[in-house]
Amino acid sequence: MISVHEYDYKYETGALYSALLDFPEILRGDFGKMANIEKLYQRISAWLLLERAVQKEYGLENLKALDIRRTEKGKPWSAAYPELQFNISHCDAACACAVSVEPVGIDVEKRFPYRETLAKKVCHAEEWDYLMRAEEAGAEGGTDHGYTNRAEFLRLLWSAKESIVKLEGSGLGYGMGRLNLMPLLRKCAADVSDIFRASDIRCEGWLDGIGELQLHIRRTEYYTMAICANRVEDEIVNVDQLIKN
What we know:
four-stranded antiparallel β-sheet
């Protein structure tokens, strides 16, 4: 089950902390260190989205029923239901979660401008060559159009690779530049412009260092979301309200 919640930031602080009181102690300890109220809201919303998903999909009462623990690398898992796999993500625009019987990774990122220093850290050599073709793909639209292509491709790579390392469980320490997504992306796009600007991208195949997987990338006006697993569900559920005032 894949769920996403787009924020409207209409909440009362009291309701926010009331929701936090019902969280497992392992989560409350993390949240208590957060001074930024908006970041706290985003993080609580992400976990509430997961709670809504396990209630609907598995009939569980709340997050406490999962008996959440963390691996040595910090990835949360359920000691009560170890067969249940889940992953959450949040940014300034939305939060998302994925629940499955197989390992799954999900990432949602607010749209950000192109930064070459970041691109050099994220891109495999083959992806970098492809990124440089952004100018060629945007030639008819002028320099700004080429710049837009680079930004779109970088955002796609960042979210896709973030979801993959979260699936693998290593986090950013894995090294995004080690992953080359071009063999997968070439299977789902007819030409360069499709990869740069398509709002919905689905591909599957073998990824060196990871194995066989499916990847679904969804772009909106405000964020990019990527989900990866052995099998990614087609439906994405949009959830309206999480924190009740």
